[in-house]
Design a protein that fits this description.
Blueprint (H helix, E strand, L loop, with lengths): L7 H5 L14 E8 L3 H12 L5 E4 L15 E2 L8 H8 L1 H24 L11 E4 L6 H14 L5 E5 H6 L10 E5 L3 E2 L2 H14 L3 E3 L6 E5 L2 E6 L2 E10 L18 E12 L2 H7 L6 E4 L5 E5 L4 E7 L6 H18 L10 E9 L6 E5 L2 E8 L6 H15 L9 H4 L11 H18 L1
Parallel strand pairs: 1-2, 1-11, 2-8, 4-13, 11-18
Antiparallel strand pairs: 3-7, 4-6, 5-6, 9-10, 10-11, 12-15, 12-16, 13-14, 14-15, 17-18
Helix pairs in contact: 2-7, 2-10, 3-4, 4-10
The chain binds flavin-adenine dinucleotide (FAD).
């Protein structure tokens, strides 16, 4: 069990006003939610606010301690890592279209939660860019825009040429050859958003227990019995909301289905106006690039640069120090004017990967009293906020749209789950080589 994670977000967020406290004694509720991130909090909010049931959130650490309090705050329309053409080929046109709608609906859910719950989380103007990291990738971005528009009937995307990127204050530099701009998608303060959700959940009368890890999960007839160090929670239903921190031992269904992978972030000192001019970003819209192991970045409202990327299989202090240096070097590589800028914060957190490269929201096979939503593949700010509510509906027996594999199929188990770390190391190696040459 760990306290707050040192990060820029932790240093700039308002206090947790959820009233969360460790469980002390036994409780009986209709639904227990395991995990106090966006998935768990939005599930609890829907369960109490719409279904009117008695709910307890059980969080091993602090509310928002997982990826929800540490991410880069991009609320995006992305849904997993299966490309558009492959979605059409494998799932059919209707499901591929529905997957694009799902992503747009997810961002709409975030916007609506911020509005209806009056969450102050520094929501920035709309716009999310995917930038070609090499000129050779520009044609592929143009094709992707065409597929969105002509194949999938979605016109919320524009192609921006190098000239447009420079002229309109989006980006400059050697790695700014062209981009897709998604009109839907925006940056927010992830921990303020998590704490805002927690406060809203408390207003609906939900009991939130932090520093309360569920250490065992038994059945007593139709009742789930969740043991924690401070007491036991008996619940008729459970929502599993643990994503990249999913324990392997707690329930046999969840063994071997999620591959946790580290994503890493640095935040620099505030850049000067002249430096931002050189970088070419006059906007606080959010960016990532076309690498397989993509870099992501944004100009924060206080003019610092946040820059992140996925790497690392082991979190030893020397490995973490290397990852920090690697991100600082990548900044200099993209914008030579920032060579030597260093960083004032560095932290990392777990994203959850699935074997079939898509997120999953469903009930456990053969047991409709357990719902789960997880494996957002590094793009879960919006999707977890949306899927938490869907998992709540599902566990309460309400029909949810089943028009994409995200909600119509179960999360598959990895073949040879014990080798997941080895897969990851292998993939990093292969993708790293590919990113250098393609
Ligand atoms: C560095 C980083 C950057 C990212 N950037 C972005 C981004 O910009 N945009 C985007 O869309 N996505 C991003 N993501 C992914 C996104 O943050 C996640 O998909 C999302 O927060 C998942 O929310 P969650 O509630 O499902 O999981 P989490 O927020 O990870 O919460 C899971 C919780 O479960 C708890 N838990 C685990 N086991 C137990 C137990 N036994 N008992 C009780 N509690 C337990 C954990 O303590 C944890 O708090 C990023 C992730 C990271 C790590």
């Amino acid at each position: 069990m760990t306290a707050a994670v040192a990060s820029y977000w932790e240093d700039t967020a308002a206090l947790d006003e959820s009233g969360a406290r460790p469980l002390d004694g036994d409780r009986q509720v209709e639904v227990a939610v395991i995990g106090g991130g966006y998935t768990g909090l939005t599930a609890a909010l829907r369960l109490a606010g719409v279904h009117g049931v008695d709910v307890a959130v059980l969080e091993a650490n602090r509310i928002g301690w997982g990826a929800s309090g540490r991410n880069s705050g991009f609320a995006l329309t992305s849904v997993g890592k299966v490309g558009l053409d492959e979605r059409i080929r494998k799932w059919g046109l209707e499901a591929a279209r529905a997957s694009v709608r799902l992503g747009v609906d997810a961002v709409e859910t975030v916007r609506e939660l911020i509005r209806s719950e009056a969450i102050e989380c520094d929501a920035q103007p709309e716009g999310a860019l995917t930038v070609a990291h090499r000129d050779e990738r520009v044609a592929e971005l143009k094709d992707r825009v065409r597929t969105y528009r002509e194949g999938l009937g979605y016109d919320g995307v524009d192609f921006l040429s190098r000239e447009q990127l420079e002229r309109d204050g989006y980006l400059r530099g050697p790695a700014a050859g062209g981009a897709i701009r998604f009109r839907t998608g925006f940056g927010l303060h992830p921990l303020k958003y998590a704490r805002g959700l927690a406060k809203a959940t408390t207003r609906r009368g939900v009991a939130q227990f932090d520093r309360t890890p569920v250490v065992s999960w038994q059945r007593d007839g139709s009742t789930h019995v969740l043991a924690t160090p401070g007491g036991t929670v008996r619940a008729r239903k459970v929502v599993m909301a643990t994503n990249g921190y999913t324990p392997e031992h707690l329930h046999p269904y969840f063994r071997g289905r999620v591959l946790p992978a580290a994503s890493n972030i640095v935040v620099t000192r505030p850049l000067t106006a002249a430096e931002w001019q050189e970088v070419g970003m006059a906007t606080t819209q959010v960016y990532s690039d076309t690498r397989r192991l993509l870099f992501y970045w944004r100009r924060l409202p206080d003019d610092r640069l946040l820059f992140g990327g996925r790497s690392g299989v082991f979190n030893t202090p020397p490995a973490l120090a290397r990852r920090r240096k690697w991100l600082e070097a990548a900044i200099a590589d993209k914008w030579p004017v920032l060579t030597g800028i260093g960083s004032e914060w560095f932290w990392h957190g777990n994203v959850g990967l699935s074997y079939d490269l898509i997120p999953h929201m469903n009930t456990v096979e053969g047991d409709p009293t357990i719902a789960y939503a997880m494996a957002y593949l590094g793009s879960g700010v919006a999707l977890s906020s949306h899927c938490g509510g869907l998992a709540a509906d599902l566990v309460m027996g309400k029909a949810v749209p089943r028009d994409t594999p995200v909600t119509s199929t179960e999360i598959p188990r990895f073949p040879l789950p014990a080798l997941r770390k080895a897969y990851l190391a292998g993939a990093y190696l292969a993708y790293g080589i590919e990113d250098r040459w393609r």
